[in-house]
Amino acid sequence: MPLTRQMLARIQAFVHDNIAETISVEQLAVLVHMSASKFARVFKTATGNPPHRYVTLERVKLARTMLCEETIPLVDVGARAGFQTQQHFTDVFHRYTGVTPRACRLAHRNVGS
């Protein structure tokens, strides 16, 4: 059974609403009434990414937006985006964007001035 648009929308809304919390594959699977293993397979087929990577990418996207649009401290950006520690935030953000959160913020400020 593939994921329908409605199922994907439900998952996206849940991730968006709970981004600062721990989000498990099991929680997402319950939303669409599937086992965790079946959900992981059909989600990857539907989106091209496993559920964990999707959640991580959404966290990085939110963090990038906050770094560019807000002046809150970096540690708060990481926490609001759902990263457990500042070091984890920095490591993951750098892995996916090629720059550290601080460098991203500074680059955006330099472009904006």
TrEMBL record:
Ranges in a coiled coil: none
Domain of life according to the entry: Bacteria
InterPro entries according to UniProt: AraC_XylS_family_regulators (IPR050204), Homeodomain-like_sf (IPR009057), HTH_AraC (IPR018060)
Keywords from the UniProt entry: DNA-binding, Transcription, Transcription regulation
Gene3D superfamilies for this protein: Homeodomain-like
Domain HTH araC/xylS-type, residue spans: 9-107
Protein name as catalogued: AraC family transcriptional regulator
Organism name: Paraburkholderia kirstenboschensis
